[in-house]
Write a structure and sequence with these properties.
Elements (H helix, E strand, L loop, with lengths): L3 E2 L6 E2 L13 E4 L4 E4 L10 H4 L11 H4 L1 E3 L6 H23 L14 E5 L9 E3 L2 E5 L5 H10 L7 H18 L5 H8 L6 H11 L5 H4 L9 H24 L13 H6 L2 H22 L12 H18 L1
Parallel strand pairs: 5-6, 6-8
Antiparallel strand pairs: 1-2, 3-4, 7-8
Helix pairs in contact: 3-5, 5-9, 6-12, 9-12
Length: 324
């Protein structure tokens, strides 16, 4: 995340602001300018400002982020709508990160493009997942207690709404980029054969568990389940790393490294191994120790071995190529 300033008075703005607290100006994030602008007749705030707290400029009525949402909770679903606000805030951060990487984002039309079904499980079970360009999110994941309970039950070191969205969008880019001609052979050499039975892999994972040596080859135990899950996990971590490095650089908490840490797109062009060694590992260690100083668990409880770094390098090369 970059730092932002009010277009009228220059005061600091944060990504979720729709009002400058210094001069009182109504502001909105203009995706085409990658900056905040003053709200006006020619730059109207998104029509979903009251519906989900969206502070993006409309294009012309709804912004792209809100147009990506295909389904949301019913107006009378109070709990679902509360969780919907949390999910949409996370989705705006997801899309911002994709834009910073210059990755293609197309609103779904017919059978092509990306869409989000943000579903309330107050009326029945919802399964978070991805299928043919549609990302489904169980909005109960927006509830801290519910999500933490599942994290513990499934023995996961990390579980957030933004993490879910980054993982699921990884499936979208696996389908549209990584498995395209020219990339599929390298994908299979690193991640495995994506045509292997997903149902069989899922049953094996939840019956037997991850292989004993999974830490040597995968970024998480879940990544060991199937090649497509492996790619989605690595893609999510690529977004975690580039976004957090950009934020650290923007707010002056990162030592100079000589790397373009302020620009995720430029980081995709850099040596991934160098980025990990010189920038990410030192920052992750510091953030983990800061969390421990506050009595909280590690912020980034993962170990990136050589096999995982090679997979991250593949994602970085894929992103750099797609953004051209």
């Amino acid at each position: 995340m970059r730092s932002f300033g009010c277009p009228r008075c220059g005061a600091e703005l944060f990504f979720d602001n729709s009002l400058c607290l210094t001069c009182g100006s109504a502001v909105g994030y203009a995706r085409d300018r990658r900056a905040f602008v003053l709200v006006s007749a020619t730059a109207p705030i998104c029509a979903d400002l009251d519906g989900c707290g969206c502070n993006w400029i409309g294009e012309p009525t709804w912004c792209l982020n809100c147009r990506l949402t295909r389904t949301r909770p019913a107006d009378g679903d109070v709990a679902g709508l509360q969780h919907y606000w949390v999910a949409e805030a996370a989705k705006r951060r997801l899309l911002f990160g994709l834009d910073e990487l210059r990755l293609p984002v197309q609103v779904r039309q017919g059978s092509a493009g990306l869409a989000f079904d943000l579903l309330s499980s107050t009326a029945g079970p919802v399964t978070t997942g991805y299928l043919n360009g549609v990302i489904t999110l169980d909005l109960a994941e927006s509830d801290d207690a519910h999500r933490e309970g599942l994290r513990r039950a499934m023995d996961e070191p990390y579980r957030t709404v933004l993490g879910h969205l980054r993982h699921e969008v990884g499936h979208y880019y696996a389908e549209t980029l990584a498995l395209a001609p020219g990339w599929q052979r390298r994908f299979r050499s690193l991640f495995g054969d994506e045509t292997a039975s997903y149902a069989t892999a899922l049953d094996r994972h939840y019956t037997v568990g991850a292989p004993p040596d999974w830490r040597e080859r995968f970024v998480s135990a879940y990544a060991s389940m199937h090649p497509l899950e492996d790619f989605a996990e690595v893609f999510a971590h690529f977004l975690h790393i580039t976004d957090t490095l950009q934020t650290a650089a923007a707010f002056g908490v990162l030592h100079p490294t000589g790397l373009p840490v302020h620009d995720p797109r430029a980081l995709a062009e850099a040596s991934t191994a160098e980025v990990i060694a010189k920038a990410w590992i030192p920052l992750a260690k510091a953030l983990n120790q800061i969390n421990r100083s506050m009595g909280k668990p590690d912020l980034y409880p993962f170990v990136l071995g050589p096999a995982v770094i090679a997979k991250l390098a593949f994602v970085a090369e894929l992103v750099a190529d797609a953004s051209r």
